[in-house]
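Workshop exercise sheet. Pairs work together: one partner reads the sequence aloud, the other fills in the structure field after running the prediction. Swap roles for the next sheet.
Pair: D.N. / O.F.
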Amino acid sequence: MSLPKRPATALTIAGSDSGGGAGIQADLKTFAALKVHGLSAIAALTAQSTTEVRDVLAVPANFVAAQLDTLVDDFPIDACKTGMIADPATIEVVAQRVEDHAWPLVVDPVMVAATGARLVNDEVVDGLRSLFRLATVVTPNLDEMEVLTGVRPRRPEEMADAALALCREVGAGAVLLKGGHLEGEPVDVLVTASGDRMERGGPRIPGRVGHGTGCTYASAIAAWLSRGVDLQTAFDRAHAFVRGALAHAPKGLGRGSQPLHPLHAYFDGLESALGPAGFDPDS
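Structure field:
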């Protein structure tokens, strides 16, 4: 009898969101929803809710290195995703490990929270470029693109031009510029270093929802890459996944932007399997 195939694994190196909607917490929910075993190295702690980021504490770089080296010693790692990293020394540690192990890498350059709070200083922003050159894809939103380049695109054509320019400047494999902050309907644009371009959009989902969207998006791409699909397919599937998680976002969690629901399909499945008597998500 043949042994069962091991699950794909994906590693997130990011910050912890004490409110549970973004960061490491969103990443691990997304990995689980996409049937990927999630590994994590916590690079920062935040005192965070849906309305504010009250404080940020960077985890010492040597302890981030210890987390990564411990994982590498025991687990195969099929893909890696980085989120909030609050210390330039930690960026150096992460870049060295990624380079050593040649993991497919999704870099979410987390700089500005959904609340509008700036999360990292200019030294960290400069340091992130050492990760960009190793990235399969970099996934800034419009606010982060403005921090990185001084340019804020207003239309999909401008987004594509800005994404290609950044991609070639930093040496990344691709840039996915997310258009959730566009006026009108949102459009996301993926541009590769060779100039190939894909767009995905859809009607804006109403309501006060969006906390953790960027983390969920990047980790969904990493999950699909860990399962062996190409980047364009990973982008297409991740876009659909995020729209589903937005559409099923719970209500009443905090006074600010509501977290997504990456595990909505799992909860719906439990309700169907166990029936109202066995499972009531509203109880």
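Discussion prompt: Residues 276-283 have pLDDT under 50 and may be disordered. What would you look at next?
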